[in-house]
Amino acid sequence: MFILRIIQEERENGNKPFEQVIENFEIGKSYSVIKKGSSKEFDAILETYGGINKDEIAAILCVEKRYDDNNVFFILETTANRQFSYFVMTESGKTFERL
Question: Three-state DSSP class for 3?
């Protein structure tokens, strides 16, 4: 079983400190990573989600299991005021892959 850990750090501007939120999601036994520019599938998946800015997305994580009946996570690009770290972890808490 894999877990996705997202560490999100945001601030209003360069003069403010970052605020941090850490989230963990059970994603099941398998997943796929589709990076921007590596496959036509990236664009096809984004087309099904209207209103998403393609420039903000670095990759798409397709997973086996989510509770909201959606099987994708968008791996967002880092900006000066918004930073993200994504880790796929094992059940025991060890990092399997950093996205």
Answer: strand
